[in-house]
Amino acid sequence: MGERPAFPPNLALLVSIVAVSTASILIRMSSAPPLTIASYRLLFATLILLPFYMRSGGINRLRESPRKDVLNLVAVGVILALHFASWITSLSLTSVASSVIFVHVDPIFVAVVSHFVLKEKVNRGAIVGIAVAFVGATVIALGDAAVGEANLYGDLLALIGGIMLGLYILSGRRLRQNLDLVSYVTPVYATSALVLFLGSLVFGAPMAPFPLREYLLFLVIAVVPMIFGHTVYNWALKYIEAPVVSISLLGEPVGATLLAFLVLNEAPSALTMMGGVVTLIGIYQCIRSTG
Length: 291
Hints:
The protein is an all-alpha fold. The protein has helices at residues 9-20, 23-29, 34-55, 58-64, 67-90, 96-102, 106-116, 124-147, 149-175, 181-203, 212-236, 242-248, 251-263, 270-290.
């Protein structure tokens, strides 16, 4: 993999998983609309990184970069915005457990795209994993259908968020080979923040005023799950293969579900628990077979 960093990448992944596991709980604690939360999450994360970006000459490098490279960063920012817009909205419609399980089907999406678009044949083990994950997701959906139509809509939004997450991780794995961490994430986060703010204006999500508590929550969401979560695993992507990162991210549904029970007193239904375990086993099998 080239040079080895002073900080162990595997330990960095562990830190990132613990950090991202708090996201759904912190988001549920906010009373702001989903698009507003997503917008401020990316805005504050960008502002935190901006001094480091400017100090390292990032703006000058960006100006001197080929147009194709700049457009690639913009495209990844749009993908990230779609991920957060769909997933954070899903948390207001379905359970934490269902949302975080569906948003992590990205390895299944990557395997299917590889087979039909990239013409990379998916082996038998991956097909078994996809089938198992589909059965598990169906069980979750059946359980949520019994609760209400809104829950199914939330599951669908989380699934869209998972597809966007898959594209985000694959893109990051490729672009991070030639860009340092700050030079990669800062323009991506800035683009994502801009897209989300524009989306908030289009859909009428208010950006102000909010109580101080809300702004503090936005800041915590930006620092913990965004900086120590997303940014740290973006750092790890330079040193660890994308499938390994995808496997590690399967820890988020476990951590988030546990935190939802402890903090929000939200216990997943029996069908969600059963379907979640089956889905995660299927995703794990798929990653092992294609990684």
